[in-house]
Amino acid sequence: MLKRLFSWFYAAAYDLFNGPAERAGLREQRRDLLAQATGATVEIGAGTGLNLPHYPPAVTRLALIEPDPHMSRRLRSRASRLGRDAEILDATAGQLPFPDASFDTAVVTFTLCSVPDEQAALNEITRVLAPGGRLLFFEHVRSADPRIAAKQDKIPFPYPLIGCHPNRDTLAEIEASPLAVESVRAGELPKAPQIERPMIVGTARRPASA
Fold it and tell me: Is 35 inside a domain boundary?
């Protein structure tokens, strides 16, 4: 019951909580990353749709995966307000409802920290990407500072209710997947709690022969 109530509250307050980070530069970083999206594009864990304004005209099809019903309602509302033609589906990262090689671009932003199995999600992303297709990622990661990493390992409240694991070495998981990392940059999420600040932004590609 507590988790369901918190899920409703978190979805309702998500944009408010993220407002300081968005205004401090995260919005521009989203725009710069998503400018690389082309063709048929799938976003996994679309949340309330903060990425929606940043998809360029080069995106010819947009599919948005969001399993949380409270987030999904807000996602649909934002897509309607923006006049964005998008398929919005209730599915999970580990079981995407698409045929093989359906997309040119896949997007995850602060998603892989919350999936039950990162490799399962990355394998599914690889499957639905066409050979040569790209993954654009923006993710929380484990800190290189042992003191901060120790705090991340404790996963304090409310992170267990959110399902967020800020201590994951997500870059290593991407490198261990069938995808080939093309570019990656380490940075800090602005205006965020200390254990959420370490992040990476980059691209990876499904090999043309895969």
Answer: yes
Q: pTM of the predicted model, to two decimals?
A: 0.95
What is the C-alpha separation between 152 and 182, in angstroms, rounded? 27
Domain-embedded: residue 210: no
Q: Which residues contact 61 (CB under 8 A, 6 or more apart)?
A: 39, 40, 41, 87
Render pLDDT for 8-29 as a digit per residue (tens, 0 to 9): 888 999 999 999 999 999 999 9
Say how far apart CA 172 and CA 151 lie, in whole Å: 20
CA distance 63 to 48: 14
Q: How many CB atoms lie within 10 A of CB 153?
A: 12
Instruction: Pick left, alpha or beta for residue 39 (phi over 0 → left; psi -120 to 50 → alpha; otherwise beta).
Output: left
Query: Which residue type does 94 have?
Result: G
Residue 98 pLDDT: 98
Q: Are 70 and 7 in contact (CB under 8 A)?
A: yes
Q: How many domains does the chain have?
A: 1
Q: What is the rounded distance in angstroms from the CA atom of residue 200 to the CA atom of residue 51?
A: 17
The answer, yes or no, to whether residue 202 has pLDDT greater than 70, is: yes
How far apart CA 98 and CA 156 sit, in angstroms, is 36
Instruction: Write out the residue range of the structural domain in which residue 168 sits.
Output: 2-205
Residue 45, domain CATH: 3.40.50.150
Assess whether pLDDT exceeds 90 at residue 175.
yes
The reply to whether 195 falls in a domain is yes
